[in-house]
Amino acid sequence: MVRVEMRMGAGELNVEGGSPRLLDADFFFSIPEQGPVVRYEDGSFRGRLTIAEPSHHFVSSGRYEWKLRLNNDVPLDVVTHLGAGNAEMNLGALNLRGVEVHMGVGNLDMDLRGNPKRDYDVEIHGGVGNATVRLPAGVGIVADAHGGIGNIDAEGLEKHNGRWVSAQREDAKVTVHLDIRGGIGNITLRAN
To answer: Are 154 and 191 in contact (CB under 8 A)?
Structure first.
């Protein structure tokens, strides 16, 4: 198992599966000192992969973008901290144990469609911006979604006891639990 932690102050983040290794990455930045720091620590139970913007990051109007490809087979906890910018996260092919996203200012487009083998939790804490989450079919979905200022649109889910749920949640072998806290912006859940 590996905990993958991404920390970006400002920029564009793209994460997907498909790497034969734990990580393949392309980094684009205008100033050489902006190059991210990538570290891997091996633990007896779980490894930790950290990709972080350097602490001496320079504010620049140039391009700052990470394109990350993770391994589909390794069990992963994916944790993302974004200050400002946009994130596109196509995580459905990964062997997820959990997902946690902390957004400052920007938009999140997360695609979880795939065939998960186990239950997992997704936490999204938004600041200012919109979040769209595409959910896998054929699994149970239980979502606690609360917006600050903005709307919550849950396509293909029904409201039951204050939660958004999928019709097949009771019979499903796998359930994805979501806890979404929005700040200012819209939250869209798509389960169809």
So the answer is: yes
Question: Can you give the pTM of this predicted structure?
Answer: 0.92
CA dist 187 and 55 (Å) reads 31
What does residue 34 show for φ and ψ, rounded to 5 degrees? -85, -5
Q: What is the 3-state secondary structure (H, E, C) of 89-151?
A: EECCCCEEEEEEEEEEECCEEEECCCCCCCCEEEEEECCECCEEEECCCCCEEEEEEECCECC
Q: Give Dmax over CA atoms of the chain in angstroms.
A: 53
| 146-166 pLDDT, tens digit each | 777 778 888 999 988 889 999
Quote the CA–CA distance of 137 and 107 in Å, as a whole number: 24
Give pLDDT tens digits along the chain (192 positions): 999 999 998 899 999 999 999 999 999 988 888 889 999 999 888 999 999 998 765 555 678 999 999 999 999 999 999 999 899 999 999 999 999 999 989 999 999 999 999 999 999 998 888 889 999 988 999 999 877 777 888 899 998 888 999 987 778 899 999 998 877 888 899 997
Residue 103 burial by CB count (10 A; 0-12/13-18/19+): exposed, middle or buried? Answer: buried
Read off the DSSP letter of residue 20. Answer: S
Does the CA dihedral 113-164-176-153 come out positive or negative?
positive
| CA 15 – CA 167 distance, rounded (Å) | 29
